[in-house]
Please model this.
Amino acid sequence: MKTLAILNQKGGCGKTTTAINLAAGLALRGKRVLLCDLDPQGHASLGLSRGKNPDYPRTLSDALLDGGALDGCLFPISQGFDLAPSNPSLHLAEQRLHDLAGGEKRLKTVLEWVAGEYEFCILDCPPGGGVLIANALHAADEVILAVETSFYSLYGVSQLLQAIQAMAPERDIKVRALATLYDRRTGFAREILQDLSRFFGESLYNTVIHHNVKLREAASYGLPITEYDPKARGCQDYLALADEVLGGIVPQAPS
Model:
C-alpha cells in the first residue's frame, strides 16, 4: 500500500478537494483506495456524505486512541474506495496523542493492519502543524503539497518543507507539489506556475488542477467529481493526476 499525504499549512488551497478526487480517480482506474480524514473539521467526510448527515459509530480518532485496527471505521464510498471518517472528536484525540509516548506514530501502526487490503491510502491532513501532521509524515511514503497558484500560497513554501523534515527527521520522504485552483485567464497565475516549476523542478506534477466551479458543486452534494460530473474540467484534471500518480499518461502543459 502506497500512502500519500495531501498537505499544506494553510486552508483553502484544495487539499481536501484533491484528497477526495484523487482517491476517486484512482478507484475509477481500478485501484483499491482508502481515504483517511485526518482533519478534525471532517471536511473530507462531509464531502463524501452524499448530502446526508451520517452518524459514524466509530471514526479514525477511535482507532488512533486505542491503537488497534480500523475495524468498524471503514465505510464504502464506491467500488474499491473506502473512507475512514473523522469528526470533531479528533481534536480530543490530538490532545491525547500529544501526551502519549510514540503518539506521533499511531497512524502508521493503524494502517499496518490494512496494508494488504488497499493499493493506495490517501491522507487528508489538517492545516497547520501538530501531532496529526507528524502522524501523517511518519505514515506517508510521499507528501503532495497542494499549492494554490497565488502569491500567499507561495509564501512560506520553503519553511513548510523545513517543517516537514523537522517533524520526521529520521525519514527521507518524497515531496512533490501540485498546482491547484489555477485560473488560466490571469497572467499572474501563469507567473506563479512558472515560479513553482523553477522551485520544485521535476518534483512538480505536470498535472495542473484548474479552478472549476463543478468541483465546489460536487463537494456541496457530498460526491466526488467522478460521480457528480464526469465531463467537467475538474474531473479530467483529477483523472490526469491519478494517471500521473500511477505512472501512466503524462499530461500536456496547462492551457
Q: What stands out?
A: The beta strands are 2-7, 33-37, 75-78, 81-84, 120-124, 142-148, 174-182, 204-210.
